[in-house]
Each structure stands twice: as C-alpha cells, then as structure tokens.
Amino acid sequence: MTADLKKKRLQALIFYTVLFILSVIGIIVTTFIGLTLNPESPEVPNLMVFQAMMFILAFFTGMEAWKYYNIKIPEIRLIELIKCSGCGYVETRMPKKGDYVFKKVGKCLKCGGELYIESILREVKNVKAGR
Amino acid sequence: MLFYFFSLVVCVVCLMDGGTFYDFIMWFIFLTFFAYITRELEIWRIIKDVERYIILYKGMRDKALLTTLNAFKEVAARSKSKLDIKTLEDRVMSLVESVLIEPETMDPYGVVSKLKHIVVTGEETTTREVRRLIPSASEVEVENLKDLIAASRSMNMVYKAVDHIYRLGRKFKSIWLLYQLQALLPFLTEEMKSLESSLEAFTNGFPIGDSAGPLLAAKFIRKHATEIRIEEPAKETIAVEVPFKNRRIIVVKAKGPSGVTGRLDDALEELLVKRRLPAKLIITVDAALKFEGEKTGTIAQGVGVAIGGMGVEKFNIEKIATELGIPLYAILIKMSGTDALAIMCKEVYEAVDKALLIVERIIEEYSEEGDTIILIGVGNTVGIYP
C-alpha cells in the first residue's frame, strides 16, 4: 500500500515538474524572441498571448509539483511485543495471523517463565499525509 | 437578479458613453452568456470533484468485497470445507446487500427493546449464514468474518448513497444538491478510510483502536487477579471478579479474541438485577472520537455511560443504574475514526496504561473498602483475551 502510494506520488511529481520546466523554458524562449522582434510587428500580440499562457501553465504545474512534493506518505509497521511473565524479558517480532494479546507463546529461554503476547501495535511514521 | 441588474447598469453606461443600441445588445448578450457559462462551469467542476470521490469509494468498496471473499475462501480452505466459488460469491454479496430496517417510531414507547430485538435477530442471522457457508469454521473465524461483512456493508452503503445523490444532482443539474454532497465528502471520506483500515485488522484478528476499553479491562484482570475465574453472564460477554485494595471489582467485557462487542447491558442486568450484586459504582471505559485539533490518546473523564452503537445498550445500562441509584463514571480514550478501526496504534496503547491508573485512582477515591464496583471495558475485543 505504502509502496504503491509512493510510486504514484513520484509519478505525479515527475510529470508536473517536467511540465513546469517546459513552461519556464517556453517563457524564456518567448522572451528572447520578443526582444529580437520589432515592437510594431503584428506578431507581438500573439507572442504575448502565448507567453501569458506559459505563465499560467508554469504557475499551476509549479503549484501541483509543490503539493506532491509536500505529501508525506505514512510508513506503517506492525510490531508484536512478547514478554516473559517471570523475568520481564521482552522481544519484538512481526505479528502472525491468529495472534492475540495475552496469548501464551512458549517458555522463556532465560528463566523458563511463560512468554505471552503483551501487545500488537501499529507504528506510524510521517503521519501528516495529504488528501 | 443582482447580476442582471449589474448587466443593465453596464449596458446603460455603455449607451451613455456614446455606444449604439447594437453595442447595448451585444454587451447584454455577452454578460448573460458569461453568467450562464460561469454557473455551468461551476456545476461541471463540482461534478468532476464528486466523480473523483465516487471512483475512490468504488475502489475502496471493491477492495472490501474482495478482502471479505478472500477471507471466506481462506477459512474454507483451512477448515477443508468444500465450497462452490460462485455460490460463495452470491451468498456473500447477498449478506453485504442485506439491510436492517429500524423499528417504527410513530409510537416511541418500547422502541429500544424493539430495536434490540431487530439488532440481535440481524446478528444471529448473519452468524447462521456464515455457519451455513463454512460449517467447520471456529467461533473466532465466524465473528471476524461477520465483522468483515459489516465493514463491507457500510462501505457499500456509503458508496451507493453518494452515487445516488450524485446521479440525481447531475440529472436535474441541481447545483444545491451537488453543493451539499460536496460539503459532506470530507466526512464520508474519513468514514470510508476508517472502514478500509479495519479490513486488515479483522482479516488477521489483531486488536483495533476501539479495543482500548476491552484491553484496559483485560490488563486490569491480569494486573490484580490472583486467579482468573471467567464466567459468562450474557452471550459473548465475560465477567471476572478481581480483588483490588480490599474491594471487589467485577470486570465485564466482551469475550475475545473474536471481534465481538458483547451484550454488556444483558450482563449488567444479570449481575445487578438477577443476582442482586450490591454495586456502589459503575465505571465504563471506551474509545471516543477526537476533535481534529486533539491528539490521539488524550484521556477524558466524566459521568454517564461511555458507549457507542445504536444506543440500546447505553439506554439499558442507564436504566439499570438509575433504578438502583448507582453512580456512573466514564473514561474516554480519544482517537480519530481511522485510528478507532485500524490496528491499534502506539499512542492508544500508551493511553490505555494511563487510563488504567486513572481507573485505579477513581476506584480508590470514590469507593470504600468492602465495596463492589463494576468496571466495563466497552468496545470490540478483537485480538484480546480474556
């Protein structure tokens, strides 16, 4: 799930960044062309319209790229805490299907006490996710 | 109206500025067209926005259905049941599409018992249907499959309702219907996300955020009981007597580790009314929805019954407590909707330990030695035993 979301985010980020760069290049090129043209030339208004469109495109693609850059995909990890009722020894592992809290899972290798599942938890990093 | 007045003013100004009648007409047509196109564009924008959400909801609903079907197939394979896939799909779909018709409230007298009867009938019917499909499934597996069906049913209902309003709004080009739907979408998305996150927990049978109440009850039992003697005063509900600081604490919770919420009101009736236990205090602990600005794991204390659902259990517990004059105290562990149904997060787990200390303090401060106190861990006890 997380890997899938990360892939989608990267794809969108690349797409909008490329569009942004292209529109910025478009603005620079049209500016240079405009500088070489005679101000009285009939091509100037068309060039200005094209340049304005490039500005709008650059603005929106830049905003989108920034939005995707800021999206944090939460990384979820499942942890199972196993504890010894005798000596308090604790170990962690990935929870298995059918495990439940306070399930007895064997004997402690240190003291021979009873090992039981203390908790099954979900640890989340990068909690602030986008829409 | 205001727009047309504005258009007229613009047109009159145009005429006064030396424009011809032709200019006046052109301006008027242009502004009218502009007003029309703005409205159409707004409707189109909302429709596109709602469509995006509907695609998202459909994906979530389909994922839930697939997860439920796969869970059924897995349980059937594990218990070596012979199962026709087509029949299974049809039966699961009919379970997901099944409805619970709420009782008539024209005459509200006795509506709670009627509602309870309908809810219990619904639960028993689902259990029977699941058992009929996989007769050799264990009790825990049946309950977890039932929870998966319930999650899929809720997601299916949200998707269908949103799709219905969207289609109506589009058909009649009703911008107000679409506005209202659009305004509700953030809340519905949260609900869908919560339900989606519950799928993993119910498939594997791991505790969820809503299990905070039962986890606290189980922790209290393990911390203070010298000998754990479990009895079942009501269906799927257990009670354990625990000594604490020369007091007698009766801990009541749903019977785990399957995903059930128990029949806490029935258990309380059995203990307090039928067995006439002289309880001095009832403490309920439950998970509660936090406000957006609050942190997950915040604990709130109060009076009353901390219990969600359709209100039947809350009503019955309040009724028993009121008749017997027993004070009701509540502890709420706050979390978001997603945290409540997803596998329990670290913040909630740590909050349970803190809430346990608060429960112990309340018992010590609000009761005397020799008193009997009822502690109820409210919520789904999936992945927690006892």
Topology summary:
The complex is a heterodimer of chains A (131) and B (386).
Chain A: H1 2-36, H2 43-70, E1 75-84, E2 90-93, E3 104-107, E4 114-125
Antiparallel strand pairs in A: 1-2, 1-4, 3-4
Chain B: H1 2-16, H2 21-78, H3 85-97, H4 111-133, H5 139-171, H6 175-204, H7 212-224, E1 230-234, E2 237-244, E3 247-254, H8 264-274, E4 279-289, E5 299-303, H9 312-324, E6 328-335, H10 337-341, H11 346-366, E7 372-377
Parallel strand pairs in B: 3-7, 4-6, 4-7
Antiparallel strand pairs in B: 1-2, 2-3, 5-6
Give an overview of the whole structure.
- The complex is a heterodimer of chains A (131) and B (386).
- Chain A has 131 residues and is α+β, with helices and mostly antiparallel strands.
- Chain A folds into two domains: 2-70; 74-128, 60s Ribosomal Protein L30, Chain: A.
- Chain A has helices at residues 2-36, 43-70, and strands at 75-84, 90-93, 104-107, 114-125.
- In chain A, strands 2-1-4-3 form a four-stranded antiparallel β-sheet, with no helix packed on it.
- In chain A, a hairpin with a 5-residue loop joins strand 1 (75-84) and strand 2.
- The two termini of chain A are 15 Å apart.
- The model of chain A has no long low-confidence stretch (mean pLDDT 87).
- Chain B is of the alpha/beta class.
- Chain B folds into two domains: 51-203, no CATH class; 209-377, Rossmann fold.
- Helices cover 61% and strands 13% of the residues of chain B.
- Chain B is built from eleven helices and seven strands.
- Chain B has a seven-stranded mixed β-sheet.
- In chain B, strand 1 and strand 2 (237-244) form a beta hairpin.
- In chain B, helix 1 (2-16) packs antiparallel against helix 2 (21-78), helix 2 (21-78) packs across helix 3 and helix 4 (111-133) packs across helix 9 (312-324).
- Chain B is elongated, with a radius of gyration of 28 Å.
- Chain B starts with a helix and ends in a 9-residue tail after the last strand.
- The mean pLDDT of chain B is 91.
- The A-B interface holds A 78, 95, 97-103, 119-124 and B 203-207, 215, 218, 222, 256-257, 342-346, 349, 383-386.
